[in-house]
Specification:
Helix content is 5%, strand content 58%. By secondary structure, it is mainly beta. This is YceI family protein.
């Protein structure tokens, strides 16, 4: 098994959630690491993948909102500083599509989730290094992970939607 590094300058962990039932708040986690081992990244079924995300690195471009998300109402980042994912099964759906199932842990709650993953291809960067690109997406119910804070709106509905769409965009290279 070969180890693979994430090119942090060409990768991102993004999320989005409905706001006030009419729009979406989008954000990223600025600090994360991964352990990726695979015999061949052109066939992800051979891979072992794990991520560790710094919960306090959440960034929605609003300092007040980010501070609320880091607090006990949401991530409680002081008590639960990391969000983790560890793959448990990877199946090939087509030549360039995979289902990566694994254990996602947020606030000490672990649930099995599946990321639909697309292999975007491989190439050689300007420094002669081989690189591979992937994009993965899943949707989780935040309340299942203990992220239950909300506020009712006078017009009906709630301030924060339950479903969180998570997108992971990766460019990786050999370690």
């Amino acid at each position: 098994m070969a180890k693979w590094n994430i090119d942090l300058g060409h990768s991102a962990i993004n999320f989005q959630v409905k706001h006030m039932m009419v729009s979406k708040v989008k954000g990223v986690f600025d600090t994360y690491s991964a352990n990726i081992e695979a015999a061949d990244l052109a066939d992800l079924t051979t891979a072992n993948i794990s991520f560790t995300i710094d919960a306090a690195s959440i960034n929605t471009r609003s300092e007040d909102r980010d501070n609320h998300l880091k607090a006990a109402d949401f991530f409680d980042a002081e008590k639960y500083p990391t969000i983790t994912f560890k793959s448990t099964n990877i199946t090939k759906k087509s030549d360039d599509e995979y289902a990566i199932t694994g254990d996602l842990t947020i606030k000490d709650v672990t649930k099995s989730v599946t990321f639909n993953t697309e292999f975007n291809g491989k190439g050689t960067n300007p420094w002669g290094q081989e690189v591979y690109g992937f994009e993965s997406a899943t949707t989780i119910n935040r309340e299942e992970f203990g992220l239950t804070w909300n506020a009712a709106l006078e017009t009906g509905g709630v301030l924060v939607g339950k479903d969180i769409k998570i997108t992971v965009e990766l460019e990786v290279n050999p370690a």
